[in-house]
Structure formats: structure tokens, C-alpha cells
Amino acid sequence: SAVISQKPSRDICQRGTSLTIQCQVDSQVTMMFWYRQQPGQSLTLIATANQGSEATYESGFVIDKFPISRPNLTFSTLTVSNMSPEDSSIYLCSTFLSGMRTDTQYFGPGTRLTVL
Amino acid sequence: GNSVTQMEGPVTLSEEAFLTINCTYTATGYPSLFWYVQYPGEGLQLLLKATKADDKGSNKGFEATYRKETTSFHLEKGSVQVSDSAVYFCALAGGTSYGKLTFGQGTILTVHP
Description:
Chain A is an all-beta fold. Chain A contains no helices and 11 strands. In chain A, strands 2, 4, 5, 6, 9, 10 and 11 form a 7-stranded mixed sheet that branches. Chain A is globular and about 35 Å long. Chain B is globular and about 45 Å long. By secondary structure, chain B is an all-beta fold. In chain B, strands 2, 5, 6, 10, 11 and 12 form a 6-stranded mixed sheet that branches. The interface of A and B includes residues 45 and 104 of A.
């Protein structure tokens, strides 16, 4: 399976600031996904990031709030902009096994964000 | 659109008890079904999966069978251990939303010695 790492693992931020989360995969992959897990809740897909094209956002999520970069086939970033306490969540990236277009997604360890 | 419904928790069991966590889904087409597990303080791990009707996924003593006729994918384990305490998520992918995982609300399982 792909090894996925995220940085930072956790952070505490002030209201109104922005945080960029990095996701690194140990092999080249076509699709990468960003999810949000609010406290005590399930996971919700924020957007799909494909290399060489604009990210595709799910309903309720916009690029101005969650800009995403995908500069190459092993790396992506998610920025949480102009943060408020409601953005306190775990943010996870995921991808398909070994870059193949299978249905099985593997997840990074997550970034636990607290906004004060 | 796709949706997943899990039994409400939390679930509390004694060690060696039998576990069932119900999961039903709504999807068009032929989705793949998954159970993910999140141990305390850790990330999300794939527990098992099934990609077509009547497939049985199994791992670490857990099993789930893809039942198209009842649109269900219930998770079972014959004898739980304290180390199984975690949050369990049922999820589906495919149908009309390729690549997107739709998760159930999660079920907290606590196993006491």
C-alpha cells in the first residue's frame, strides 16, 4: 500500500490566520483527496486534486476558503484560509493504492487543527 | 446521491462478546463497500472491503458480506478484544461518484475486560 504522510500533525492557530497542510505520497498517484472530520463527526470530502488541473470541490466547499495545490504526482497542499473556530477539525488526505484507479483509498495520519 | 447509514452508537461490549455493527447504503450502479477503523489518536485504516454482490471481506477476525438485495454491509466479529475499541466507519465508493468515498456517521466501540 502507499505510504502517505502529512505535515503538520497538529496545530493551534488564531482566528483569521491561514494554515497550509502538506500531503506527501511515496509513489506517483493520479488522484488525491482531501477530507475534513469535524469533532465527533464523520468524514466529508472537501475536494479532489488531480495533477495538472484545477481541484474539484464538493458542495459547500470553495476554492477561496480551501485553496489546493497539486504541483506533481506525489504531493499536494490544502490551505485553510481566514480560519474561524468552526474550522477546527482533522484534515486528511487520501489516494488510491499505488496510483491505480481502484476503489480502495488509503489515508494519511491526519492534521488536527484547533482554531482559537 | 450516495448515502450510508450506520447503526447508532456507542456500542459497549465485554471482551469475547459477539459484535455486529449494521450498515445500509443507497447508491446507483454497483458501488464498492468498505469498513474503515480509527483507533484512538490515530488515522483512518482500511479494515476490509467488498467490490461486488455476495463478496465477503475479512480481516483481523472481522467480516462483512455485500448484500445487494438488502443494500447492507454489516460488520461482524465473533469475539471482540479490548484492542478492538475504536471508531468504525462504513463507506462506499463508485456508483455515480467515482473516486468519492461516502462515509457513514461512525460507530464508537468500547470493549471492557
